[in-house]
Amino acid sequence: MDHSLTDRHRATITAVCNTFIRTLERRDDPDGLWGLSGSGRGTEQAVVAAVEQMPEFANVCEVLESLDQASFATSPRRIREQSLHEILIGGDDAAVALRTIQRLTITISGELSSNRGGSFDTERDAISDPAPKTIVPIIPEGDSLEIDADVVVVGSGAGGGVIAGTLALQGLKVVVLEAGKYRNEDDFTMLQGPAFNDSYWRGGPATAADGNVWVQAGAGLGGGTVINESNCMETRSLVRDQWAKEFGLEGVDGAEYDRHLNSVRRRIMINGDCSDLNGPQLRMQAGADVLEWSFKRTHRNADPATYDPLTAGFTSYGDASGSKQSTLKTYLQDAFDAGADIFVNTSAQTIRVTGGKAAGIDAVYTDPDTGRTAAIRVNSETVVVACGALESPALLLRSGIGGPAVGQHLHLHPCTAVSGLYAEDLSSWWGPAYAGYVDEFADAHDGWGWVIEGVVYTHAAMSLPRQATPGKPEQTVNDFDRMASFIGLLRDRSSGQVTIDRSGNPVYGYAMTDATDIANSYDAVEGQIRLHEAAGAMSITSVAAGLPRWNRGENIAAFIDQCRAIPLRAGGHQLWSGHQMSSCRMGNNPETSVANPWGELHDTPGVWIGDSSALPTAPGTNPMFTIMALAHRTAEAISGIVDDPSQSTFAARA
Ligand SMILES: Cc1cc2nc3c(=O)[nH]c(=O)nc-3n(C[C@H](O)[C@H](O)[C@H](O)COP(=O)(O)OP(=O)(O)OC[C@H]3O[C@@H](n4cnc5c(N)ncnc54)[C@H](O)[C@@H]3O)c2cc1C
What we know:
Bound molecules: flavin-adenine dinucleotide
Helix content: 25-40%
C-alpha cells in the first residue's frame, strides 16, 4: 500500500540525502559528478517516492520525526553526520530504517555508478552490437488468465532456470513464472543504479531485520545468474559426503552427481579461458606467494568468443558483452524453444493444494509501465518452488505448507571485507571482478573454514560503510583507483531465519552465534590484513564501524587486535551476503528439513524445492554451480527421465 510523507518529512529526507551525498572535490571529475550533492542530483525526490511504497514506511517516519525534533535539517554538517552515524551503528528499528534510506540515497544518486564518471559510456557504445530478445514472454491481455501445465516453475534463476529447461526438453508442458523483468545485454548500461533498480531483489543491498547482514540477490528473468560474477566452483567432496551421509542425498557423493555437474558444465560453458586477473587480484596473488598460501584461479561461465575484459568488471550490473552463459541464455532459452510459456513481472502469491497435493499456483502479473494487474492461475500437479532462499520460504509460509523447518537454517556465507591502498592505479574495473581466490583455510575446523575472494570494485558493498562514517568520503573517492578490496567468505554453521510480515513479505534475521564461525571470521579479517601487508599495501582499512586504518610503519599486530575486538554484527564489522541458502532444505527428517532428499516436500506431494534454499548446509564455495547441479538432479527426479539413461540409476526410480 502506498503512503504519503509530510512536507517536514520531505525536508528531512533532503537533508539526509545531502548528508550522505555531499559535494566532493575529486582529482578527476570530467562530468562534474562528484561536485553535486544529493539534492543537486534530484535524489531526494526519488527517495521520497521509494519510501512512500516501502513496507517499512512507519519505521522510516519515526526516524524522520526524531531527526526533525532535533532540528536535523538546519544543523551544521558535522552534527548531522554524527547524528546519522549514531543511529546507523545501533541495532534497532531506527537503524534498519535509516540504513534503508541510506542505501536508497546512494543507489539512486548514481554517485557510485562508476569510479570514472561517465567516461566508460564511450566504451559501452563501442562494444555493444544490438542484441535482440530471443524469448517472447506471455503478456496477459485481460484481467485474468488460467492455463494448464505439467509443471509450473516459480522463479527463473540458477535453480528454476535449469529445471524449466531440462523438463521442457523432455517434452513436458512447462510454465515459468518470474517476478522480475526481462533484461538482456541491450539493457545493461554498466551502471549500478539502473542495475540495482531493474535486476536486484528489493532494488539492491537490503538489510536484515536485525541489521546484522546486508544481502544482495538477483531478480529478473535468469535471476542471480544474470547479475552474478560468473565464477563456477564445484561442490567440494567433503560437502558431498556430508550431504549423502547426514542428509540422505543419495548419489551426491559419487559418479551420479558428477554426471549432473558435467551436464551443467557443458551447457553453461564453464571454462578457464575468461579469468584474467585484475590489479587487486594480482595483489592478492602476490601476497599469497609471499605468505606461501594457496591461490587459485576460478573457472567462469563465459563464452571465450565474446568475453571482453573491458566490460567483465561490470558483470554484476548485467554482462554488456553478452558472453555470460546465464540461465537466460541457456536453460531458459531451451525452455522457450521447446514450447514453455514464460511470464515475467509475475509474482506467485500462493501454492494451491487440493487433497494434500499440489494443484497449481495463483500469481499476479503487473505491467511495469502502467501498473495494470492481471490474476494468473496455473493448474498443475507439479509445482517447483525456486524463488531464491529469501522468497521461497515466504511462498511456502503464505501457502501454509512445508512443516516446521520452513524458513529455518538460513545460511548466508557472511563476508567481512578489508581494503588495501596501493601506490599505483590498479585498473580494477578491467577484467572480471573475481577470478582468483585464496583457499588456504577452506578446510580449517574440519571443513568449516573460510576463503578470501575478490569483489566488484565499484560496488556499494565497499562504499556504504564509508559513506556512513563522518569525514571519510573525500578520502575514499580520491583513493578509489588505487584501492584493492578483498572479502573473507565464511562457510557458516550459524543460521538465520525467514518469516513473513502481515502482508506476506519475507523478513529475515541472522546472528553469528557459533563459536567456530566467530573464530573463523576474525581469522578471515586477519588473513585479509596479512595478505594486503604482504602484497605491499601502503595502508589497510577494515570495512567496519569507524573504518579502523593501519599505515605502513605502524604496528600491524596492534591493528589486528583492534579489528579482532570489533563485534561481528550491526555497528561492528560490516557483514555481507550474496549467497542465501538452505531455508527450505532437503533431508531425511521432516522436523529439520522441508523437502526429502530428492527435493519433494515431506508434507505436500507434487511441490518441489528447486533452488538455493534446498541446499542442506552452506557449501563453503560460491553456490551457483552446486545449485544448478542439484536442480538438474531434482529435474530428473521429477520426470523420472534422464538425458542419458544408460548412465543413471534414476530410471529405476521412476
Ligand atoms: C552480486 C552477486 C554476485 C554473485 N556472484 C556469484 C558467483 O560469481 N558465483 C556463484 O556461484 N554465485 C554467485 N552469486 C550467487 C548466485 O547468483 C545465487 O546463489 C544464485 O543465483 C541463487 O539461485 P536461486 O535459483 O536460488 O535464486 P535466484 O537466482 O536469485 O533466482 C530467484 C528468482 O526468483 C524470482 N522470484 C522471487 N520471488 C518470486 C515470486 N514470488 N514469484 C515469481 N518469481 C519470484 C526472483 O525475481 C529471481 O529472479 C552471486 C550473487 C550476487 C547477488
